[in-house]
Amino acid sequence: MQDVGVLGAGIRPMQPVPGRLPVGAEWSYEVDWSGIRLLADVEDGTLCLRTLEGDDVTARFPEFAPLADVVPDGLFDGEAVLLDAGQPSSLALFDRLRRADPRKARTLARARPAILMVYDVLRLYGVPLTARPLDERRATLGRLNLDEVGRIQVSPVYDDGPALLAGVREQGLPGVMARRRDTPHDPDAEGDWLRVVAPAEAPTAPTAATAVDLPTAEQPPAGPALSALPPKPPHPLSASSVAPSGKVPRGRHSRGGEEPPGLW
Fold first, then answer.
1. Do 76 and 40 form a contact (C-beta atoms < 8 A)?
2. Concatenated DSSP letters for the chain?
3. Cβ neighbours of residue 84 closer than 8 Å, sequence gap 6 or more
4. Number of domains comprising the chain
5. For residue 122, what are the contacts with CB-CB under 8 A and spacing of at least 6?
6. Residue 134 belongs to what domain range?
7. What is the CA radius of gyration of the chain?
8. Would residue 212 count as lying in a domain?
9. Rounded to an integer, what distance in angstroms lies between the CA atom of residue 157 and that of residue 115?
10. 15-55: per-residue pLDDT in tens?
11. Disordered: where is this region (predicted)?
12. What is the pLDDT of residue 205?
């Protein structure tokens, strides 16, 4: 077993801590997908998937292999998600992890493919990104167009935490992740990444709920839409929705062409 602390030139993963929902422009919000945390390390065009415990589970998720065809060198943080009756299922994922036979894993991947929800990029083309603030790393992630890669999808970012928390509660999802926008990737930092459990009951004060479009078992959408009731805001990764905060610009990243400074 390899210690994930030495994965990717000494890059250690951050861990969310339980907390209450913070509110403010300095925070971004994502769905807690209730998946299995994976570090996807692509080096020299070869993908290696490791759990937080350091276990190599690459052979168990062959549907994620096309990631290396698009990004030949990068370190990505995310979660493997499997659906059961339209909802993320931890039990289905653990069943997949028990299948060590690559042939069986390929059969399961064809019958019931998982989705890799990516929410951070820590290295790209040999350049460490851990010192960059989260918003810059998310912008870089958005430019890679990973949503076009089969079973890979970038986890959407939302601006309204209370609305998202109300929405995930209504849809039976476990909760919300809240992350500070301006912070670097620091595994020793406390309070920069919070896991907020969805309340069992609706809040006393009425809150407009954000509806989360879940990926389907057959094929993930090309970017989950964000719809609030009322009104319906734009797609979370569309130009109109990211222009005010500068998050997640679109467009394929190119090693050869000029890029805006500070993106990677």
1. yes
2. ---GGGHHHHPPPP--EE-PPP-STTEEEEEE---EEEEEEEETTEEEEE-TT--B-GGG-GGGTTHHHH-SSEEEEEEEE-EETTEE-HHHHHHHHT---HHHHHHHHHHS--EEEEEEEEEETTEE-TTS-HHHHHHHHHHTTGGGSTTEEEPP-BS-HHHHHHHHHHTT--EEEEEETT----TT-SSSEEEEEPPSS--SS--PPEEE-PPPSS---SS--EEESSS-PPPTTSHHHHTTTT----S---SSS---TT--
3. 91, 92
4. 1
5. 8, 11, 75, 76, 77, 128, 129, 130, 137, 185
6. 4-242
7. 18
8. yes
9. 17
10. 999 999 999 999 999 999 989 999 999 999 999 999 998 99
11. 212-264
12. 52
Return the CATH number at 25. Answer: 3.30.470.30
In terms of Cα–Cα distance, which of 121, 11, 22 is closest to 67?
121
Q: What average pLDDT does the segment 78-103 reach?
A: 87
d(C-alpha 224, C-alpha 190), whole Å: 29
Assigned domain for 138 exists: yes
Least confident of 80-94, 188-202, 207-221, 226-240: 226-240
Report the residue count for the chain. Answer: 264
Residue type, 127: V
Residue carrying the six token digits 């670097």 = 184
Residue 190 in any domain: the answer is: yes
What is the distance between the alpha carbons of residues 25 and 120, in angstroms, rounded to a whole number? 19
Average pLDDT over the chain reads: 78
| Residue 249 placed within a domain | no
